[in-house]
Amino acid sequence: MRQDTYQFDDRNIQWRPFPGFEGLYYWVLDVDDDRQLVDMLMRFEPHAKCVPHCHVGPTRTLVIEGEHQIFAPDSRTEVLEHARPAGSFARNNGDETHIEGGGPDGTVILLSMTAKDGVVYKIFNADLTLDRTITLADFKRGLAKQQAAA
Q1: Which of 31, 39, 65, 124 has its CA 20 to 30 A from that of 56?
Q2: What is the per-residue pLDDT for 77?
Q3: 42: Cβ–Cβ under 8 A, 6 or more apart, which residues?
Q4: Which CATH architecture describes the domain 26-149?
Q5: Mean pLDDT of 50-60
């Protein structure tokens, strides 16, 4: 059986670069204070990675395009734990520290992240000490900037 490959049409998305991260972009779709939920798209260029982090609440991920890679939190280059192809759906309870990245062709993912007490995720330094927390308020500011630029 032949399987066709399709590319996600993102021409109407004005990807915003993550400051300080080459090849990593985002687009906030919605921030729901009442449900403490953030929905966003992320795009990783080929082999681009983020820093170690932990989603504090339940998180659901749909791989829209490419390969979404999950690495051990103590290795930005070597220890690949999961490689999820387009069409994959994953969820976790917010209890795993990891590094995410794009595969050989990059990736686009849809994230639905649930906050706890307003905190969406924690970012760690290379030695896994806490760097900072990212909150619903941070995402609301990002969404407001997107809307103002549109």
Answers
A1: 65
A2: 59
A3: 24, 25, 26, 100, 108, 109, 111
A4: Sandwich (2.60)
A5: 95
Give the span between the Cα atoms of 129 and 110, in whole angstroms: 27
The answer to whether 47 and 102 are in contact (CB under 8 A) is yes
CA 8/CA 99 separation, integer angstroms: 23
Burial (0-12, 13-18, 19+ Cβ within 10 Å), 78: exposed
Do residues 13 and 73 lie in contact, with contact meaning Cβ atoms separated by under 8 Å?
no
- Integer Cα distance of 111 and 1 in angstroms: 31
139 contacts 111 by C-beta, under 8 angstroms:
no
pLDDT confidence bin for 7, thresholds 50/70/90:
confident
Q: pTM above the 0.85 mark?
A: yes
Q: What is the model's pLDDT at position 54?
A: 95
Q: Do strands 37-44 and 24-32 pair parallel, antiparallel, or not at all (unpaired)?
A: antiparallel
Q: Between 60 and 75, whose confidence is greater?
A: 60
The dihedrals phi and psi of 65, each to the nearest 5 degrees, come to -150, 145
Domain ranges of the chain: 26-149
